[in-house]
Amino acid sequence: MMKLYHTSNQNLSQKQCASTVIQKIDAPLHLVWSVVRRFDNPQAYKKFIKNCNMSAGDGGAAGSVRELELVSGLPAKCSVERLDKLDDDLHVMVVSNIGGDHRLINYRSTVTLHEDDDSDKTTTVLIESYVVDIPEGNCGEDTRMFADTIISCNLRALAYMTEKMACDQSY
């Protein structure tokens, strides 16, 4: 899955950077996927999103476009994203930023979910990788640190939410 879907630092221009963030979640894969795959409802676990409006499609298929209103305090107010791939069988989602007033230009994220075979309990491993242009005046390390921080916060919120759901549903 890593070779098929996730971005590595190979084949990047000097004006791009990439990273991968991994989150282990003590909840069944199908439960975690049911939240992640909702392109039309990212604010369910992404706490930096205030509102989401679909401007094309319903969020259930590639080509859907969402307009996001971001919470105040971030260095942006809005983002426009396109769903490039949604595979319910392989648990793969690919999203690209196509507009907005943020500095993450040409940002493309890939999320895959996997069952953790090494765990005694039902555990999901979520892998999120991305590639993005380095903004003028920034370096790759600063850009990676900013994006990794946002992603890590989102994934910790997802883990908390789905682990609570799993406990409530007695999986």
From TrEMBL:
Source organism, top-level taxon: Eukaryota
Protein name: Uncharacterized protein
Species whose genome carries this gene: Catharanthus roseus
